[in-house]
Amino acid sequence: MKRKKLQIFSKLFAGALALSVLLSACGGNDSKETEKPDDPTQKVTEKETEKETEKETEKETEKETEEEEPNDDETAERVDITWMSVLHTDSPPSDEVIEAINDFANVNLTFHWVPASTVDERMNTALASGELADIVTMNRLTNATQRKALGSGMFWDVEPYLSEYENLNDISDGRIASCKVNGILGGVPIVKPVARYGLVIRQDWLDNLGLEVPHTVDDLVDVAMAFVNDDPDGNGEDDTYAMIERNESWGVSFRQVAGWFGAPNKWGVTEEGNVEPWFMHDGYFEAMELYRDLYEKGAINSDFAVMEKNDQKQAAAQGKGGIVITGLYDARNYYNLAVELGMEGEMEWALVNDMHVEGGEVRSLSDTNNGVGGVYAIPKSEVPDEDGMKRVLQFMNDMASKEGFLLMTNGIEGVHYEMDGNTVVNLDQEKWKQDVQALSGSRMNELVTYEFDNSNPMVQKSNQMIFDNEKNAVYDVAPPLESETYDMLFSQIEQLPKDAYYKYVMGDITMDEVKQANEDWLAQGGQQMIEEFTASYNELNG
Amino acid sequence: MDKQTQTLTANTANQTAKSSAKKRSGKAPRRKRSLRKELKMNWMLYLMILPGVVYFLIFKYAPMGGLVIAFQDYYPFLGIKNSQWVGLAHFKRFFNSGVFNNLMRNTLILFGLNLIFAFPSSILLAIMLNEVRNTRFKKGVQTIVYLPHFISWVIVVSIFYVLLTTEGGAINNIIESMGFAKIPFLTNPSWFRPLYIIQEIWKGAGWGSIIYLAALTNVDQQLYEAADLDGASRFQMIWHVTLPSIRPTIVTMLILKVGDVLELGFDHVYLMLNSLNRDVAEIFDTFVYTAGITNGQLSFSTAVGFFKSIVGLILVIFANSMAKKVGEEGVY
């Protein structure tokens, strides 16, 4: 009797434990749609690095030559700065580079590393107990604790000061807006590329068929049909489809396509001033019609609803299809995989970042939470006076410069890398890992990457295009807004429009049923989200 | 399954201990006094069991206090003390969410199929292996059928994806080459349940048969000899000797299985779940994952987990009493 009871209760406990494990496991990932960039510029031992690094720890290999000291007065006394930051690698960096940073920025920097796996718990306790550092890396703006802290006023509202610093001045308004909680910018936004998505398409197939790279949706459809019907790989067999979609299609590639048709990025403001989700926009339904049509004609892989990301990559590398709507950096990954599979030289990808409907504008929806990875916050408890806060901002400004970026990304010239014209050559991958890799997760501004050239033309091209995407970027309006219903219910009821999408594209249901799914969504809490977001939006903007 | 194996071993020990306790307690009706006496007499034995008891108290019973967060709006940084008390709000949300009936139905159907097909498959396999006379062949087959147990669900589901996908899947290629239309095994809702059961059997039957094979080794060979003399055929021997001999084991396993009615295994279903088969494939665990955990709603997730455990507990008690009614030894 007792034993059995124990058994049952232990199951209860095990269940709770499993929940907590799951929770912390998925805690690391703010948004499903934010994909890990297979690093755009890395040359050496890609596999190893891919395995061992988080998305933040990309390694850049470029650098420019100027050796300019920051504005600091050489004679000024060094300032002690502590920094509580997230460690995405197994071990912290060695002192060598930190010393170089100290010399460069005229500070005495001490890192308090928080391993990425325990960052939520550690941050919870740190915020609760007030044991913080001069700089606190708050990398999860959706986490309830971090949000509450940022909106509470316990950190300096840095917004008014940013314009005084040359390297912090140009952080885009969209990013700043995304980081605000209760209208307070609780820290300096961690800048990432805002929109990395585009269309990658097989250039060699286009050439075989005598077609041009498409830039409008109509052209895309023509090309897609040609890829399906005209044997683009010239092997005499009818064995190709056009677009390779995968099971995350709805939230990833299809979201981009809906964006071309004018749908907002997740949440947008309507003409009536309501904050509404993208799946209620007309563009969403138009894009769905397009997909259904393409699917019916065999232009989309028939198993897309169950295809995993890695299978998609395989299919692209094996030439089963020739069009992928994905991160522009992926073209090189497909190419590399094809080389691994022994198909070297048979594949050429064109990149397109200006897809649009005829007469419409180019819209690149942000796939990286509006291009921010959180904020570097300065707590008032640690830095009580304005002058001290400005000195910390000055340090951040220095680290956001090209030189600061290189120090945290590549290390020390002559020790970790050497210059080859405008290209960095890594000297010792192992040494880089020990000394520098961990620091690259604490960079101020990853856009600096794109100011350098890359020796790989494909990477160079995608870097350029991702950088260019910024001007057409469409931001999600929801991050700075508050809605309790959203926090509680969204992931549950978003299944309704999502499932309807797959069923409609595969021809299982009618458009009326799609609209009905939206109605159900509204009835089960969506209406409340719209109202709460709209109220919050009006409060902030008006 | 290994969990069940453990329990069973523990359980057998428990039964033995209990039956001897019964005999003794029959002679000593005043329990309280006898307990004290017992402690005094066998203090060394109790000392030995102490670490186990302490272990259960600390690691199994004490954490159960955490269940209170099912009745709170729990935030880790507020802690249990400061989190807001919301009573049954999470349970209400769960039961009124409109999906509850669907989840219950899917869970029960999958469980029923499991009970009808997957559960007997182990018994069947054990009996078949038991009938094999060539020891080397028997051992070989045994080893091979155990192996799938050690393959994780991710791999199993991936293998089925590779075999069954409509774009170059082996099975669909065969179907197509024979002139039939491709079958969307993975996206057609009516294929979900058969696939689920097939995968369960493929992965679990071999491992599950271990316990029955162990039970079968204890069957008195004289019974077979006697049956043989009476002119019983192989099937009659299975029916009248083998099965009755392992009946207690089967009943015990069944009761344990019933306790797991709402625990179908998150990863298996979650991996097979997609937007097209959600109507038949969504179960409690997957729902909790999407609705609760991905949003960090610890309290809601705990409430659902709590509900599942209570249902499991009730069913175990029910199954146990049923087993006793039909004259079998229960698990307690």
In short:
The complex is a heterodimer of chains A (542) and B (332). By secondary structure, chain A is of the alpha+beta class.
Commentary on this structure:
- The complex is a heterodimer of chains A (542) and B (332).
- Chain A is globular and about 70 Å long.
- In chain A, helix 11 crosses helix 12.
- The termini of chain A are far apart.
- Chain A is an alpha+beta fold and 542 residues long.
- Chain A has a 5-stranded mixed β-sheet with strand order 2-1-3-13-6, with helices on both faces. Chain A has a 3-stranded antiparallel β-sheet with strand order 10-7-11, sandwiched between helices. Chain A has a two-stranded antiparallel sheet with strand order 4-5.
- In chain A, helix 3 (95-105) links the parallel strand 1 (79-87) and strand 2.
- Chain A is built from 19 helices and 16 strands.
- With 332 residues, chain B is mainly alpha-helical.
- In chain B, 72% of the residues lie in helices and 1% in strands.
- Chain B contains 17 helices and 2 strands.
- Chain B has a two-stranded antiparallel sheet with strand order 1-2.
- The radius of gyration of chain B is 25 Å and the shape is flat.
- The two termini of chain B are 20 Å apart.
- At the A-B interface, helix 1, helix 4, helix 5, helix 17 and helix 18 of A face helix 1, helix 3, helix 16 and helix 17 of B.
Report the span from N to C terminus of chain B.
Answer: 20 Å
By DSSP, the count of extended strands of chain A is 16
Give the oligomer, counting copies of the same chain as homo and different chains as hetero. Answer: heterodimer
Order of helices and strands of chain B: HHHEHEHHHHHHHHHHHHH
Structural class of chain B: mainly alpha
Largest sheet of chain A: 5 strands, mixed
Main beta-sheet strand count, sense and barrel state of chain B? 2 strands, antiparallel
- Number of continuous helical runs of chain B: 17
Q: Going across the major beta sheet of chain B, what is the strand order? A: 1-2
- Distance from N terminus to C terminus of chain A (CA atoms, Å) equals 65 Å
Strand order across the largest sheet of chain A: 2-1-3-13-6
- Helical content class of chain A: 40-55%
The most extensive interface, with participating residues per chain, is:
A-B, 60 and 59 residues
- The assigned structural class of chain A equals alpha+beta
Mean pLDDT of chain A: 83
Task: Sum up the overall morphology of chain A in one term.
Answer: globular
Low-confidence stretches of chain B: 1-28
Q: Proportion of β residues of chain B?
A: under 5%
Unreliable stretches of chain A: 1-6, 17-74
Q: Radius of gyration of chain B, rounded? A: 25 Å
What do the pLDDT scores of chain B average to? 84
